């Protein structure tokens, strides 16, 4: 197993959260933590290791990608000019995921900053049914989409981590 169930910070013995928003936020937090756990104890070279050619996917690329995605979602709901892409051109998040500790440190800082900013933007909208952005997505839809994005990429992270050191997910 990836981690002893007694030591898994995602497992709790308490009752589930009360209410829809709290449930969505707990699932999001668990997937965010899962991604970080899949990247734990790896050096820059291991984090930047690509999956299978021609894919540019790597664990570091996933961290950078999710930072970019958080910014994109925030751009959908915040008034004003959209913020520019974090990593430049399309696929810059994966292409720029190189084996350099400064790139790794920046990626984790970017992810934390973008998550906090998007969390704050959505927290300011307590009605999950509220329609936001140009396309009129509901706050609920944006929150569920975030969970889906992290869940999908945690599946990728399972496979990437197994390629790096043989550890498998749970």
Descriptive notes:
The protein has 170 residues and is mainly α. It has one domain: dinb family like domain (Four Helix Bundle (Hemerythrin (Met), subunit A)). Strand 1 and strand 2 form a beta hairpin. Helix 3 runs parallel beside helix 5 and helix 3 runs antiparallel to helix 6. The longest helix has 27 residues.
Architecture blueprint of SSEs:
Elements (H helix, E strand, L loop, with lengths): L19 H20 L4 H5 L10 H19 L14 H4 L5 H23 L7 E2 L4 E2 H27 L5
Antiparallel strand pairs: 1-2
Protein name: Mini-circle protein
InterPro entries: DinB/YfiT-like, MST-like
Brief summary of the model shown:
Helices cover 58% and strands 2% of the residues.
Q: Biggest sheet, open or closed, and with what strands and sense?
A: 2 strands, antiparallel
Overall shape: it is: globular
CATH level 4 superfamily = dinb family like domain
Across the major sheet, the strand order is: 1-2
Structural class: mainly alpha
Fraction of residues in β-strands:
under 5%
Number of domains: 1
Helix content: 55-70%
The overall average pLDDT, rounded, is 90
CATH architecture descriptor text: Up-down Bundle
Number of helices: 6
Q: Quickly name the level 1 CATH class.
A: Mainly Alpha
Q: Indicate the multimeric state.
A: single chain
Low-confidence stretches: none
Task: Output the radius of gyration.
Answer: 17 Å
End-to-end CA span: 6 Å
